[in-house]
Amino acid sequence: AGQIENGASVIDINMDDAMLDSTAEMQRFLRHIAGEPAVARAALMIDSSHWETLLAGLKNAQGRCIVNSISLKEGEESFLAKAREIRRLGAAVVVMAFDEQGQATTYDRKVAICRRAFRLLTEQAGYEPQDIIFDVNVLSVGTGIPEHARYAVDFIEAVRWIKQNLPGALTSGGISNLSFAFRGNNTVREAMHSVFLYHAIAAGLDMGIVNPGMLQVYDGIEPSLLHAVEDVVLDRDPAATERLIALAQEIGKRHGL
How far apart are CA 254 and CA 257, in angstroms? Predict the structure, then answer.
């Protein structure tokens, strides 16, 4: 209820834990919240790495759900079988940019996987485009590793491509992944998330997995921090990460981190 009050329009429900029977807990929890008026204001995202748990979620949830997630990791046959069952149970689906060769980290791979998945879902599994949500992998920037520098740009450009070339399909991403290199410095992390969302939404991003109570307003970010963060997120020059790390250390000292 607290997340909904802070502005969340979708609530992710995940019961995966080694100490829990995730299938039984998913069923129990969804039945428990069915009578909560506050929860009814948001859509439910049924989230699990276990297929039986996802099915239990869909069979016990009120209203139309989103499944998080399926991918081409195990090949087309498995992908289509799961997609058809999810559609039969009336849900929309998140599709990860992941295939038999692994996770897509570059723009070209993200685009190729999404094009392939879209064709399979619309031509063979009976999906309407608006029931497909592509997650093209938000990955960490500001790590100091050159190969990571374009991760944010490639995500934003892949979103732009999807909106222009796969009409009707939606896009999403787990925003906190972007800033893992700055764990412990919430001021910098929140600024990174806000800058990233500002540019990704302009490119067509439809939804993001965020803590809605931990976002800064783009125009309210302190100018020097905004400039340093934007340089990293948009990969403006090779020294951008070094400058943001130095600024983050300075901010950390001011806040006693």
Answer: 8
